[in-house]
Amino acid sequence: VSLGIAFLAEILFRIKPCSLCIYFRYIYWILLLISLFRIVFLQQKMLQVFQVLTVFTALGLSFFHMGVEQKWWHFPTFCENPTANRGINNPALTTQEKVSLIRQNIQKSSFVRCDQVNWRILGISATIWNSLCVTFLLIYLLM
Asked: What are phi and psi of 87, to 5 degrees?
């Protein structure tokens, strides 16, 4: 469901994911694969352990992303726009030209910062909703 909502938001509403959101999608794909194997091989306790560990990893990343978004801690370097400073090292450019070039590079890229709320559902950040869903999923799996 979470993957479906993420792709729906990206395709229909043109909401671009940040780097942490992309990593989260990888975790969800892994969880989906483990869950499908668990449906086929019901008696495999090891798959259940992998499933719980994957959800626990998702919870950790979700909490970290929520902290970045709420400015509890600084975002990692891979969340910065790598194209924003492209071409500004030219010594012939004035400061105003460098600032203009940075703005152009940012506008051309589809980069989304990890510390900004991209979209809200019922006034609450999608990252916080995601954290709540993962928490409930972990509780369900542990029960």
From this structure: 85, 0
Residue 100's nearest CA partner among 110, 111, 113, 85 is: 85
Q: Six-digit token pair at 129?
A: 């909703």
Instruction: Give the pLDDT confidence score for residue 101 in this predicted structure.
Output: 63
- Confirm if 2 and 133 have CB atoms less than 8 A apart: yes
Tens digit of each residue's pLDDT (9 = 90 or more) over 130-139: 899 999 999 9
Give kind and range of the element (H or E) at residue 121: strand 120-121
Six-digit token string for 11:
């395709």
| Alpha-helix residue ranges (DSSP H) falling in the chain | 2-12, 19-40, 45-69, 95-108, 126-142
